[in-house]
Amino acid sequence: MKKLKVLFICCLIFSSCDSNNTDSTPKEKRPVKKEKVAEVTGDQLLNVKEKPKRNLKEKQVNHEKIVSKYGEQWDFCSCVRANDSINSASQKGLSEKQAERLIKRWEVIEIKCKEFLTNPNRTPEERELHEKKVAKCLKSAKK
Questions:
Q1: Less CB within 10 Å around the terminal CB: N or C of the chain?
Q2: Nearest to 124 by CA among 37, 36, 50
């Protein structure tokens, strides 16, 4: 999981750096664009349209592709618990041999949970729903 975090941070850093700045106007002299912000009432906030959920057929096709490439996948809660145990173990002082075993176990988990690791949570609502599902899995594991 730490490798994924490091990889994500590196990708974020590299993608945010833009060395091909084609605008030759100095930043100080660029005109500032003022955007108009529309006023929103409380009633308008209640009428937020929900995004349609991913097509079930698309999910099935993606699942089949992942299974054909990586093998049978674990269910969501199994993946959450496995990742949680790996994270907990990685924060302890480990010997080199234990660290190697942990990395091997992490690689197995990464393959068995590929479907959930590639599932995007782009909107705040999707992230919140994901966090609730994770919390529920972890809570049921402690019982």
A1: C
A2: 50
